[in-house]
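Lab notebook: predicted structure, single chain.

Context: the supervisor wants predicted structures on file for every construct in the current expression panel, including those that have not yet been purified. This is the next one on the list. No modifications to the sequence; it matches the entry in the shared construct table.
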Amino acid sequence: MVNALLDGPSVEAEVSYEINWSGITNRFELHDAVNTFAGKYENTSATIKWAALRDDGLTFVSDPASTSFTEFALLGRERNGVFFS
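Prediction complete. Output recorded below exactly as produced.
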């Protein structure tokens, strides 16, 4: 962590994600005019797999998406600040 905070040496990398959303279980809206924030949301399930490839050739790969377990998944659209009105 100190290396990142001090902008120490690093290795370039590329990461890819594949997320599959399914099965809406709940829909809800939030609106807070005082803090100029509003959103529409859907609780759902999701599976994900990812892979990372560093420029030095080192590769990291997750387990298959079929092995993932959804603790919490939420899709939403928000408006705030100058976009609130």
